[in-house]
Write a structure and sequence with these properties.
Blueprint: H1 2-18, E1 36-39, E2 45-46, H2 59-72, E3 84-88, E4 97-101, E5 106-110, H3 113-130, E6 134-135, E7 138-142, E8 148-154, H4 162-174, E9 179-183, E10 185-186, E11 189-190, H5 199-202, E12 206-207, E13 211-212, E14 220-221, E15 226-227, H6 232-243, E16 248-255, H7 260-265, H8 294-310, E17 315-319, H9 326-329, H10 332-340, H11 346-363, E18 367-371, E19 384-387, H12 392-399, E20 404-406, H13 409-412, H14 435-440, E21 456-461, H15 471-478, H16 481-490, H17 498-515
Parallel strand pairs: 3-5, 8-9, 8-21, 9-16, 16-17, 17-18, 18-19, 19-20, 20-21
Antiparallel strand pairs: 1-7, 2-6, 4-5, 4-7, 10-11, 12-15, 13-14
């Protein structure tokens, strides 16, 4: 009798584990971590039986869904009932979604197209780590924490092709980032075609050679002409490519400093009249746009008119950082401007400069954003601040009722080393920003009260490319710090866990290896 009972228990146990109530291995390697991810028991969904439905609500995302599933197993339309759905529903926050997988269907519900897309990205990561065509049942309820989840790329110091810029955008999209800050002009190269001023790219888009190593008293150059630029059609192509991935491209046109490339083409816009050459080494140059010359503002307004015709972003970045004032102090036109407007010093003159540019952008329905030096001399009335010199600039902006994006050098500058042992790393500008420090970052400063905190739009990682001569180097520097920052900006702090992030990141690293994508493997130890 006892033997019969034991046999019955054994058979029952076997039947339980073979039944639809089986508990599957969980392909839990989603980055950024969703707000809620509940794994269920059951048979799961067999991808071989997938029949995607067309979505009138999200037609573009439906095409992406079809492509995603086709990569795993060919989907035969018309055979069987539709069982993969994209549905629009009320009640979701911007970018929010719910993903449900069970034995009978895959369903993504969202209130907007961005949410539907993010649900697809989560499904894509589950598919990538599942290891089979059988997906375990799960319910994912999710929404982003911040509205500005950004990454920056400097294409002035080193130039990257349109295809490489698109690959960069792909990395951002994969980790649910939604802002691409495209740094297009600086002392070392002007990269944006402006049809009214063709010399900007013909002359300013090129430098005769490039510094080898870091600036020093005995600088060495490679003797090779270097440059390139993006045509207006190419910039529109990038904007459209990013928009399809729910990423806004924010262009940066530097002013009043970091202007040497522009001045090499149009020296009359300077205080001294030149001549100039596009910067061959890195650093800050004293020659800047003349703030006392009305021609400077006419020029910049015309440039911005062509830029805003290409980039539909609400914000246009105007730089505003690292502008030496020495030329202004010795310029009769700048001093006359200060006297006419009763400006007490050159910092106030910079505020006048930025405010005048802001009025032009506002007249076109756009908003100005600049680095935190635009606080000097008084912040323009409607400007947003990108806080890079620590957090104080963002705090000051928020306390004054202005929006801010946090991007302090520590830990948000991804041009810094990823290891304290620099012998294991390629040449970088300096500093040390470990992936753990990126993951631990909290964008909303504790100094802000509940009324001020909503003015923090989010944060971004900055990639300055003085020491990144090729795109593979760029990729190495952003991975795995980009995924770490994505979780900071997407996931609520109480749901974060660094050890678990590293576990999930190692799954992604295997996919990088398979695709031969460069990254810093020692950062995951």
């Amino acid at each position: 009798m006892i033997g019969n009972c034991l046999r019955c228990c054994f058979v029952s146990a076997v039947l339980f584990f073979l039944s639809p109530h089986i508990t599957h291995a969980q392909p839990d390697a989603v980055i950024p971590r969703p707000q809620s991810m509940v794994w269920k028991t059951g048979a799961g969904f067999d991808l071989k039986k997938a029949r995607p439905a067309r979505s009138a609500d999200f037609p573009q995302e439906a095409v992406l869904l079809q492509q995603m599933l086709d990569e795993k197993t060919p989907v035969q339309a018309g055979k069987g009932r539709e069982n993969v759905f994209l549905l629009k529903q009320q009640g979701f926050a911007t970018g929010g979604y719910q993903l449900q997988i069970d034995e009978n269907q895959i369903q993504i519900m969202a209130g907007d197209a961005a949410g539907a897309y993010y649900g697809l990205l989560t499904l894509k990561q589950i598919l990538a780590s599942a290891g089979s065509l059988q997906l375990p049942p799960v319910v994912v309820s999710d929404q982003p924490r911040y509205p500005w989840r950004g990454m920056h790329l400097d294409c002035s110091r080193h130039f990257f092709t349109v295809d490489e810029v698109k690959r960069y955008i792909d990395y951002l999209a994969h980790y649910k980032m939604n802002v691409f800050h495209w740094h297009l002009t600086d002392d070392q190269g002007w990269r944006a075609e402006i049809k009214r001023y063709p010399e900007l790219t013909r002359i300013g888009g090129w430098r005769k050679e490039t510094l080898i190593g870091r600036p020093s008293g005995q600088m060495t150059f490679d003797g090779k002409p270097y440059g390139g630029f993006y045509s207006q059609d190419e910039m529109r192509e990038v904007v459209a490519y990013a928009a399809a991935r729910h990423i806004t491209v924010v262009p940066e046109i530097e002013m009043p400093g970091h202007a040497l490339a522009a001045l090499s083409a149009y020296p009359a816009l300077s205080c001294t009249g030149g001549p100039f050459e596009t910067g061959r080494w890195w650093g800050v140059f004293e020659d800047v746009f003349c703030a006392g010359n009305d021609s400077t503002f006419i020029f910049l307004q015309n440039v911005l008119d062509e830029i805003t015709a290409i980039f539909p972003s609400t914000y246009i970045h105007v730089g505003g950082d690292e502008c030496p004032k020495e030329r202004w102090k010795n310029c009769s036109k700048c001093q006359a401007r200060m006297q006419a407007h009763q400006l007490k010093d050159e910092h106030a003159l910079q505020s006048y400069f930025i405010t005048r540019i802001e009025k032009h952008l506002n007249s076109q329905g756009r908003k100005l954003i600049g680095w935190d030096e635009i606080l000097e001399g008084g912040l323009a009335p409607n400007a947003a601040v990108m806080s890079w010199q620590g957090t104080q600039g963002g705090i000051a902006a928020a306390q004054a009722g202005h929006y801010a994006v946090m991007t302090p050098g520590k830990p948000c500058y991804f041009d810094h080393y990823q290891s304290e042992d620099r012998s294991t790393e390629p040449l970088a500008i300096g500093g040390f920003n470990a992936v753990e420090a990126v993951y631990a970052y909290e964008p909303t400063p504790a100094a802000l009260n509940l009324t001020e905190r909503p003015y923090i739009l989010g944060a971004q990682g900055n990639v300055w490319t003085e020491y990144m001569p090729d795109f593979e180097h760029v990729t190495y520097m952003i991975l795995p710090r980009l995924p770490a920052l994505s979780e900071v900006l997407w996931t609520q702090p109480e749901n974060k866990d660094y050890a678990d992030f590293i576990r999930r990141m190692k799954v992604h690293a295997k996919q990088f290896d398979a695709q031969k994508i460069p990254y810093a493997p020692h950062a995951l130890k």
